[in-house]
Amino acid sequence: MTILQALILGIVQGITELLPISSSAHLNVIPWICKWTEDPAFNEMFEGAFDVALHAGTLLAVTIFFFKDWINLIVSGCKKVVKKEDSLEGRMFWQLVFATIPAGVLALVLDKISEKIIGDNFKLEMGIIAAMLMIMGVILYIVDKKAESLVPYEDINMKQSIVIGVSQALAAAFPGVSRSGITMTFARLFKIDRESAAKFSFLLSTPIVAAAVLVDIKEFALTSGVFWVGVISSFIVGLIVIKFLMDYLKKGSFKGFAIYRVVFGLFILALVIIR
User: Fold this and answer.
1) Domain count of the chain?
2) pTM of this prediction exceeds 0.90
3) What is the pLDDT of residues 4-55, one digit of tens each?
4) Are 51 and 27 in contact (CB under 8 A)?
């Protein structure tokens, strides 16, 4: 893998992981379009810890952007247990915890099932990615258009948190679903306003992505320039994208992202047929 390839993938990860358009779809499709996958050396590194390294970059971006939120959540969560102090942050911390645990377990199970079904069947994988991009794009559009924005961040309850959290597992089972896409879709289904849906989705992603990074951290090539280019580029672009999305959703909708998903899905199907 070259420095340029790592830079491109880092930028792609920073954009697609945090927007509801599926990073797994783009990280699988772009190397194939560029014919990088024909290089065994590229495949060896990309299929190793590099993918997780890219997620480490966007994880760092989310953590830093919401750093004050996480400090308040953790401190208040501890106070809720030790001192029985009730607060919004304390309640929200434990909602995030109870939403993450079943999501993590289910994601591991579904990921193993998905690996066995897809295996090395490249056309099947591309077909699933295209289908999930389009199906979830249509669902996101319909849900977002019909749902009112009645529930702010502070009114998200435990039941809603768990359902939204568990929905993340579907992204592990079906490439192209998008973790952020499905959590934001379920949040809108519960009539949570768009900005709050995005914030809650980002907070939900932190522990589950952190767990994945910690599992594979021993495989990280810490002395590799390629590795650090991927991490740093995904981190910088991730910060920019989070700020953009949070500002955009104050007045904008998910319509543009939904349309992009459908168009990109059709593009992938066309490529599969042509090639």
Assistant:
1) 1
2) yes
3) 999 999 999 999 999 999 999 999 999 999 999 888 878 777 766 788 889 9
4) yes
